[in-house]
Amino acid sequence: MRSILRALSVLSLLVFLPVVSYLGTATGQRAETAPSVNQTKAAKPGAARSADNSGKPDDYREDFAVLPLEKNRLKTEIEILGEKDDKPGMPFIRERWHLMWRPGDPIDVFIVRPRDIERPPVVLYLYSFPQDTDRFKQDYWCGQTTAGGFAAVGFVSALTGQRVEQRSLKEDFFNQLPESMGATAHDVQMILNYLASRGDLDMSRVGMLGQGSGGSIAILASAVDPRIKALDLLTPWGNWPLFLEKSTFVPSEDRLELNKPEFLAKVAPVDPLQWLPAVKAQSVRIQDVRSDGHMPDEAQEAMEAAAPPAAEIDQFGDGAALVPAAANGRLLEWIKGRLQPDAKPQVAADRSQRVHFHPAKGETNPLGEAR
Predict the structure, then answer these.
(1) Domain range holding 75?
(2) pLDDT single digits (tens) 238-254
(3) Quick check: is 176 in a domain?
(4) What is the count of structural domains for the chain?
């Protein structure tokens, strides 16, 4: 587990620090609800752990297998500015908002705006489980993400970080995977609603960058919400039967239960593999790192085959091969470019023209650890 956490944490080093290191994440339904598998009303998250802030039990209805927000019943009950960092001379203003629309599940949303820019375009950042909110508090991250006049919005997925504190010790991101995916896809839509209500952001130019499980959730959200115009996915997880069987990230003690037919049936409606062909984003990029173990190569290949015909796909033979493309903020250039007013729309092209392969750099990764 120590090596897994270390590998996941290096994305922040790779993208947002001067010294870079190793990144370590078929056909689909076009309908807005996945096949009807155990689509019963979800129990209230936190109902046994905290008071119902809605006041009325009937105010909250949520089905994690039904992705469109309008087919659920969520209402923002708490909207509090928890902290504002407006240091003179800094090129950005950082806010931490405390939002809640689900009983017992408050969410910290970091909104970072470039100084002296009216209604900037915005990019949502959702990193892979188990990464927490620490990076959103870093001035370097805020400077990189807001460079060029962009707002940045960061948050974490359900059953991650502070969002798991009120849950039973028996519940975790993987054994509650339908909720981890479905609830966070709803969160993305609710956050977009909140951002639109502010009036200080250009909601006609919204992008989302998702890594690992965050990429999975970005796919689900984009499949039902056309407000996301550009989608940048870093080794997104998906193809759950294969992922849960072979991913080195899945806890070994849970693997047997997670691979049982009844659990696979529950998680099938939120499999990004089936939703990827239906994403509504006008621009899509997938960057896959081969041989990273977290997302098996076979599952990566299946996701790439399911991508929209105009999607750009970059395949990196190993993490070291990704470094030149991602170091010193270069990873962010693509999505910011796709949100420019004069950006040309992606068009369907021959696979040889939109798939790019970058050979592995070697047997030792930039952290100096042998594979």
Answers:
(1) 2-358
(2) 999 999 999 999 999 99
(3) yes
(4) 1
Amino acid at 6: R
Query: Which own/partner contact pairs does 144-149 have at CB distance under 8 Å and 24+ positions apart?
Result: 144/15, 144/16, 144/329, 144/332, 145/112, 145/332, 146/91, 146/92, 146/112, 146/113, 146/114, 146/120, 147/91, 147/114, 147/329, 147/332, 148/336, 149/114, 149/117, 149/120, 149/121
CA distances from 355 to 132, 320, 351, 358, 360 (A): 32, 19, 6, 10, 16
Q: Structure pTM?
A: 0.85
Query: Would residue 175 count as lying in a domain?
Result: yes
Q: Which of 316, 286, 293 is nearest to 369 (CA)?
A: 293
Give the tens place of pLDDT for each residue, 12-47. Answer: 444 443 323 333 333 333 334 443 333 333 344 443
Return all residues near 367 (Cβ < 8 A) that are at least 6 apart: 6, 10, 21, 22
